[in-house]
Design goal:
alpha/beta, Glucose Oxidase, domain 1, Enzyme I, Chain A, domain 2, 8-stranded mixed beta sheet, 8-stranded parallel β-barrel, 21 helices, binds phosphoenolpyruvate, binds magnesium ion
Length: about 550
């Protein structure tokens, strides 16, 4: 981040400030000149789809050489990423090497050349586009990431075939605000040693690999800025508050001054909060409030431990099930969960049972399509139909009890029989494996669950409020739709009333909040006053929320 003296006060007053909004991918403030790149492929103009070839053998041979070249390039890249960014992120490129050399993929490429007499680059374009579409059709965030991987490999392979060796990002100006349609994982590597002030994207989800890279590199990033590459011009001056997803074009002197005040305050505060991030948060009246982290993969867990999370308050298991052709085996589950939770060895970890269905599709279960999937078979409803899915998870989790203070959380509870069902299977598994029963909790994220806590309580040891779904269901507002955003902004007061009601109905029950509301610093005190006893947030917020708690007298 630049200092105030760096901030250009040259923004011409005649230029009118224009505010654009997008979605936050990676938090932070930035100020700088825009550099727009319409495309990052660096590929020459596409050949016509019907280009003819000299010889099938030549093309097959060209393809084999390109695959070998790209595989070697990826090994170098993985090593570079491990050294310059993060060892965990190098995994992305190792998985690209696997895809590139997968027999199903290479056979399909050869067949495309031979059967349609196509040049290797067109065959690559077609085959990888087919794979990309297959994953995109699955509509889950994780399969969209897989689609992105296929697009990335396709570009890399076609560049190798065309003999293109430079990347457009290797020549962008230092400290620029990069504006691109989208960012692929391999693009981000070219940003690792370049001082980019921020990135603005037209497309890109929070969970994508590129999003992970930008967060890891600490580059502020905002996505979902419609037609950004047409709207911004290279050389435009912008200020960005990525946490809020706000980009201001042509900031005037007043905006720049206000911005700098906020940047300075933010920097000082963060440094102050971080000093005590590893201490427990105790309110002025002496109550210890645990601040845990929400995680979904191993990288999140490493970061959460570094950010001072007391434990894991919500481990979403979905990434182990989505974008796959079959569910993980018992051994795979044990290995993956153990690996992910390793930074929290000996600490409390709350693992949520599989919450697929709705927007997270698992094709291998062969479920018929639902008109209204968010109201259909998801979370515990699905596991009641596939008890073997539940049993394998419970047994895998129970095998980790020696290493972790384990808690198990049931998603999408609506009626007491949902929790009675899991409690029963859990008891049987514990008896079979001769282990003591871990704490069992229910997600309170549907209106019916709120109204049934007295009936649910006898089967569980704690409740965790999933405010993202609770808002969706109580306001009848689709959480995936930007059109319903207004209800999410209106929601807190209603949610506080619901939490208060639950606390009054079952006063002895420990209450946690693991939805997004828990990370909103404005509401920490209110949540604790409603009877909440622990919070679970994304890890960069841990130190700030702990600071808030220390200033609350309950
Ligand atoms: C929630 O619904 O608030 C929650 C934490 O779960 P998810 O966002 O995974 O549905
Ligand atoms: Mg939920």
């Amino acid at each position: 981040m630049k200092t105030s003296s760096d901030i250009r006060s040259t923004a011409e007053d005649s230029l009118i400030p224009i505010v654009t909004r997008g979605a936050c991918i990676s938090v932070g403030f930035a100020h700088g000149s825009v550099c727009v790149l319409d495309s990052l492929t660096g590929l020459p103009d596409a050949q016509p789809d019907n280009s003819s070839i000299i010889s099938v053998e030549v093309e097959v041979n060209r393809l084999a050489i390109a695959i070998k070249f790209v595989s070697q390039e990826l090994v170098v890249l993985a090593t570079r990423v491990a050294k310059e960014i993060d060892a965990n992120l190098a995994v992305v490129f190792n998985s690209h090497i696997e895809i590139l050399n997968d027999k199903v993929v290479t056979d399909e490429l050869q067949k495309e050349i031979v059967a349609n007499l196509l040049p290797a680059n067109i065959a690559v374009l077609r085959v990888f586009l087919r794979w990309e579409k297959r994953f995109l059709l699955m509509e889950s965030i994780f399969s969209r990431e897989k689609a992105e991987d296929f697009r990335d490999i396709s570009v890399r392979l076609r560049k190798a075939l065309a003999g293109v060796t430079t990347h457009p990002l290797s020549s962008i100006p230092e400290h620029c605000v990069l504006v691109v349609p989208r960012l692929l994982p391999s693009d981000t590597v070219h940003l690792a040693n370049r001082a980019v002030a921020a990135i603005l994207l037209e497309y890109g989800s929070f969970g994508s690999h590129s999003a992970l890279f930008t967060r890891q590199l600490g580059i502020p990033c905002v996505s979902d800025i419609s037609k950004a590459t047409g709207f911004f011009k290279s050389g435009d001056v912008v200020v960005i508050d990525a946490a809020q997803g706000i980009v201001t074009l042509n900031p005037n002197r007043k905006i720049l001054e206000d911005f700098q005040v906020r940047v300075n305050r933010d920097t000082l505060l963060k440094a102050k909060f971080k000093e005590r991030a590893f201490e427990l948060a105790v309110t002025e009246s002496g109550d210890i409030i645990k601040v845990n982290a929400n995680i979904g993969c191993a990288e999140d867990a490493v970061k959460a431990a570094e950010d001072g999370a007391d434990g894991v308050g919500l481990y979403r298991l979905e990434h182990l099930y989505i974008g796959k052709t079959q569910p993980p085996t018992f051994e795979q589950l044990v290995r993956e969960v153990n690996h992910t939770l390793a930074p929290f060895n000996g600490k409390s970890v709350c693992v949520r049972l599989l919450d697929v269905g709705s927007d997270k599709v698992v094709p291998y279960l062969g479920l018929p399509e639902e008109g209204n999937p968010a109201l259909g078979r998801r979370g515990i409803r699905l596991m009641r139909e596939f008890p073997e899915l539940l049993e394998i998870q419970l047994k895998a989790l129970l095998s980790l009890m020696e290493d972790f203070d384990l808690q198990i959380l049931i998603p999408m509870v609506t009626v007491a029989s949902d929790v009675a069902f899991v409690a029963n299977v859990l008891s049987k598994c514990c008896a079979e494996l001769s282990v003591k029963k871990p704490l069992l909790g229910a997600m309170i994220e549907t209106p019916a669950a709120v109204l049934s806590v007295v009936q649910i309580a006898p089967y569980v040891d704690f409740f965790s409020f999933g405010t993202n779904d609770l808002i969706q269901y109580i306001f009848a507002a689709d959480r995936e739709s930007a059109l319903a955003d207004v209800y999410f902004n209106e929601a807190p007061e209603v949610i506080f009333r619901l939490i208060e009601k639950v606390h009054n109905d079952v006063p002895a029950m420990p209450l946690s909040v693991c939805g997004e509301l828990a990370g909103n610093q404005l509401y920490t005190e209110r949540l604790l006053n409603c009877g909440v006893t622990s919070l679970s947030v994304i890890s960069p917020l841990v130190s700030t929320i702990k600071h808030n708690i220390r200033n609350i007298g309950l």
